[in-house]
Amino acid sequence: MSMQYLHPITTDGLRRAGITAPWGFGIADRVRFGELDALGHVNNTAYLRWFENLRLPYLAARHVTDDSPNSPRLVLKRTSCDYMAEMFGGMDYIVTGRTRAFRATSFTMEFGVFLPNHDGPAKQMAAGEAILVLLSPTGDGRYPIPALSRDAFIAEDGALAERA
Amino acid sequence: MSMQYLHPITTDGLRRAGITAPWGFGIADRVRFGELDALGHVNNTAYLRWFENLRLPYLAARHVTDDSPNSPRLVLKRTSCDYMAEMFGGMDYIVTGRTRAFRATSFTMEFGVFLPNHDGPAKQMAAGEAILVLLSPTGDGRYPIPALSRDAFIAEDGALAERA
Amino acid sequence: MSMQYLHPITTDGLRRAGITAPWGFGIADRVRFGELDALGHVNNTAYLRWFENLRLPYLAARHVTDDSPNSPRLVLKRTSCDYMAEMFGGMDYIVTGRTRAFRATSFTMEFGVFLPNHDGPAKQMAAGEAILVLLSPTGDGRYPIPALSRDAFIAEDGALAERA
Amino acid sequence: MSMQYLHPITTDGLRRAGITAPWGFGIADRVRFGELDALGHVNNTAYLRWFENLRLPYLAARHVTDDSPNSPRLVLKRTSCDYMAEMFGGMDYIVTGRTRAFRATSFTMEFGVFLPNHDGPAKQMAAGEAILVLLSPTGDGRYPIPALSRDAFIAEDGALAERA
Predict the structure, then answer these.
(1) Which of the residues C31, C35, C43, C47 would you substitute to probe the B interface, choosing the one with the greatest number of B C-beta atoms within 10 Å?
(2) For chain B, give me the number of helices (H) and strands (E)?
(3) Which chains touch B (3 or more CB pairs under 8 A)?
(4) Which runs of E-coded beta strand occur in D5-91?
(5) Mind listing the domains of chain D with CATH numbers?
(6) pTM confidence score
(7) Closest CA to B25 of B66, B53, B65
(8) How does residue B138 score in pLDDT terms, banded at 50, 70 and 90?
(9) Per DSSP, what are the bridge partners of residue B8?
(10) Average pLDDT for chain D
(11) Which of residues 5-64 of C touch D (CB under 8 A)?
């Protein structure tokens, strides 16, 4: 089995790796030695790094942020992670991310970590969530989620528009 | 103001630093350069490291684990963190931890991160939670929380005994 | 330009990316957000992680270590890194490694970090070295470099056999 | 034995901990769980973090850099570390630093990691070096080491003034 590492994988690629709806955006990577702890498995903090690594290309793909100075500031209000199975050195995994719900200036992402499987359903190893808030580029106030992003959250991720 | 870093601080010390009940166990530390990210503030994953650093002396103090081969294995099922205010390089903080509730073989810890204040209430910067499960030393089954630990959870932390 | 990430690249692939002899083993990867520090560039410690990530597949490819309990223990005696140019978030790089010289139970590896270039010479961003010592699986004495590894060091890396 | 963690220790304190000349600046800290790797000992990259943690208060104490926008930029050109003995979780250590030699715009620091000993010589666990270059605050040229810093390098550290 061959994988395209580090580049965003969209719906078709995820389905071929055994990852079902609603996931439509993922990145394949491999566990590093430095992500293991003294217990010999992936440390609990490494998963949050993976979610962080996914957020950057995801937010660019959904037109939320880019590298320009006019780009809104992104603030993390809350993170959580459920550890569903131990992970070990050298494992190939796909981390997935989508926006589950959004309001005017904030949104809730959810994440998955899967062992890809080309002959059946991928095994889920972890599940995460993050609540993010957009601030103005200068940081002095809330910033509305761009219309293009709201449309993409709904069309690509099946996100729910909540009232604030 | 002088602080005793890295050694557990118990109730009196926490109260002097402006940290109120129910907290009765904390550790003072200082933000490291390596805990900052490219945005110049403490990265979201660093807080989980702080909770991890606190767990080890906390679990020894509550007689849950020690370094012996007969000590139960500790498995993290879930973590979460609420980020309440940005933190920056060189900040002195106290991370606190307590068990909020426990069942036969699992328990829920909660954590706080505070800026100590000797003239008023400490400012809380973050709040976290973790669900932990005890396994037998060989990992082949659940392991009951020791009676001594259950007593300490109740007496020291005001923990709630839940039915499984 | 397309790259095969995370899998070992051998001589032909390196040459196509503008990396010249004596390099014959490399791995392509990408700078992560968590490898940047508060100065906005890759932190000095990240390069040592990259060398570490390369060492594991390299040492397997040269038949020095595998995952078996009879595999010798590897001890790092010394590391160094020259930082030749700043690196930034999202950069694609190839880290290369080879054994430069070996004695009976120890060897010296060198490492490079390059920006791949399909139209000319790759730009070198960093250079590193590490001195490694083999110990017996139980750790109670030096362990001779296997003959197969010595042969591979010479044939694949052009390593120099030094007298102890 | 009681230690003052995280605050700079100067000559008298180091001598009481068994650390001899030429060391005159150190910081006491403790090995964290997250600094251990899957081999159960302190990972090779953690030592470079410790040297980094020491550099910031050291450079302020020697008047090289402060937090002002007029402060020169500091660029790391080279780092190295000799690993002299394995280190493990929970160990209390003192990391020391001094400038060994300096030129017009660059200087060489050396570092030590010691297990403090109040009844004899401290055991040295690691030794490091770093070459640092000062750039102008805007980064567009070399920046001369301030006279105050040169004097402090000589007086406090016994540094050697080299010709460029």
Answers:
(1) C43
(2) 3, 7
(3) A, C, D
(4) 8-10, 25-30, 73-83
(5) 8-161 (3.10.129.10)
(6) 0.96
(7) B53
(8) confident
(9) B27
(10) 94
(11) 44-45, 48-49, 52
